[in-house]
Amino acid sequence: VGGGAGLYTAKTVKMTAMPQLVSLFNAVGGGAAALIAIDDYLRLSGEVSSISLQISIPTVLDILIGSITFTGSLIASGKLMGVISGKPIMLPAGRLITIGIVLVAAAGSLYLWTGAISVPVMFLILAAALVFGVTMVLPIGGADMPVVISLLNSFTGTAVAMAGFVIGNDVLIIAGALVGASGAILTKLMADAMNRSVLNIMLGGFGGGEGTVGA
Fold first, then answer.
1. Each residue of 63-120: pLDDT tens digit?
2. Taking the CA of residue 52 as centre, how many other CA atoms within 13 Å lie in the half-sphere pointing to its CB?
């Protein structure tokens, strides 16, 4: 059913709407990868008293990266569709909110990496990552969305690779690594073509708006 829906959508979409479709597919991929880690963590929490770093690190990274990709891609697609304003949307105290979210996610991650098992902390990390995806993309202008989508595509691949480590699936690790690496290279090339740096573009997500054009 999913494959049929994807095939139909890809064949019927207008070429001008391709970027937002890719962004929606990014959201699906990132969300699916995060769900794998969430499901595995919930299963392990009922079976063991502690989780090794070999499992906890990719699990947490999968949840973080996949969730950021999910909400960030939805916002990027909404901006391209016109559902959300293409202008940079600056949230009140946006930088403080973003910093707070990062600190919460970092503290929760470090706690779980000690081997401790806490489903509430895992869901706290999930919530922080979901909100961060929104606060990261909203302040970036619509003209920069193609680069943002390419970066999120790289995030999707990385999340899928982490999911592969979580469940011990070599195919997911290899495919995710390929998508992550190629997406990162494409993002760099697109930013260079715009005479901008990736950091300059993404600074909008931390309250910097459109950023400044490179020399």
1. 999 999 999 999 999 988 888 887 888 878 778 888 899 999 999 999 999 888 899 9
2. 4
With tokens 């003209």, the residue in question is 143
d(CA 46, CA 112): 15
The residues near 95 (Cβ < 8 Å, ≥ 6 apart) are 206, 207
Q: What is the DSSP letter of 196?
A: -
Torsion of CA 189, 146, 144, 33, to 10 degrees: -100
Question: With contact defined as beta carbons under 8 Å apart, do 108 and 128 qualify?
Answer: yes
Q: 117, exposed or middle or buried, with CB in 10 Å at 0-12, 13-18, 19+?
A: middle
Amino acid at 8: Y
* Residues 106 and 168: beta-carbon distance below 8 Å: no
Q: How far is CA 57 from CA 60, 115, 120, 128, 151, in A?
A: 5, 10, 17, 17, 22
